[in-house]
Design goal:
Layout lengths: L6 E4 L3 H12 L7 E4 L3 H11 L2 E2 L3 H7 L2 E4 L6 H8 L8 E4 L6 H5 L7 E6 L9 E7 L5 H12 L2 E5 L5 H9 L1 H18 L4 H22 L3 H7 L6 H12 L1 H19 L4
Parallel strand pairs: 1-2, 1-4, 2-3, 4-5, 5-6, 7-8
Antiparallel strand pairs: 6-7
């Protein structure tokens, strides 16, 4: 990461915690992390488990840290940004993980040329297997994007996209883990239906999805090529794939991405 000795988090929920774990595993000192969080239980957990510094309020985080991660619920954005605007100066970088909230909307709360990077991580960041997309605001520099990239690489992989593509990212990777765990559940249910014990079916389904994803990632081959390699003429796999096509799995997943992306646009005030 580009050198900064203090990183602040406004909000200490699951995503912030995932990033804390990644930073600490990457040897960033716990003493250099400052967190403000309204829940007393969460504050105790974060301090007890990670040894981070707790702030009295959001303003203390902004004043103390050149890099601030905004990790609150999107509906709290206006209240939180209004409260920190007076302390957010030119020497600071704000990284937002607020779904649907554009960099332009965030910049509007600040005077001057606020440096803002928007991120869309996903929940596998909790196990250091996240997928995050980044885009820079009008005043963010190349170094700002590099700093944010390094921050999120502590919890998975990172792609830099245009801001106009962020709703599509939300529909695909932001919401995607829910689609995939539904697929895992359905595969396991199919195994149980065919006589497998539940724990065996779930273990096999989970490892199958994990292994297939790694195969796509590490082989560099197109998914269609890998699929064809296991489809023997007249065999079991092609029979199963025929059933998937007849039931519309591919179209259903594509529609899920489109519907979630549209909902992201609506939440961000776009049509």
């Amino acid at each position: 990461m580009n050198r900064t000795d203090r990183i602040g988090f406004i909000g200490g929920g699951n995503m912030a915690e995932a990033m804390l774990r990644g930073l600490l595993k990457g040897a960033f000192p716990a003493a250099g992390i400052v967190v403000s969080e309204p829940s007393a239980d969460r504050r105790r957990l974060l301090q007890g488990n990670y040894g981070v510094t707790l702030a009295a309020d959001n303003l203390e985080v902004v004043r103390a840290c050149p890099l601030v991660v905004l990790a609150v619920k999107p509906q709290l954005a206006g209240e939180v940004l209004s409260g920190i605007a007076g302390a957010f100066g030119a020497g600071k970088l704000l990284v937002s993980v607020l779904a649907g909230v554009t960099t332009t909307a965030i910049e509007a709360f600040f005077s001057g040329s606020p440096r803002v990077v928007r991120a869309m991580p996903n929940t596998p960041a909790l196990v250091a297997a996240g997928a995050t997309a980044l885009c820079g605001g009008r005043f963010a520099t190349v170094d700002d994007l590099l700093t944010a990239r390094h921050l999120f690489e502590t919890v998975g992989s990172v792609q830099v996209v245009a801001e106009g593509q962020m709703d599509a990212v939300t529909g695909l990777s932001g919401s995607g883990p829910a689609y995939v765990v539904t697929v895992i559940e359905a595969l396991a249910d199919g195994g149980v239906q065919q006589g497998l014990p539940r724990e065996v079916a779930l273990s096999l389904a989970t490892q199958t999805v994990l292994g297939a994803a790694r195969l796509v990632q590490e082989s560099g081959e197109h998914p269609a090529v890998l699929r064809d390699k296991v489809c023997s003429p007249g065999g079991t796999t092609i029979a199963g794939l025929k059933a998937l096509e007849e039931k519309g799995l591919r179209a259903a997943l594509m529609e899920a991405v489109a519907t979630a992306a549209q909902r992201s646009r609506e939440l961000g005030g776009k049509k």
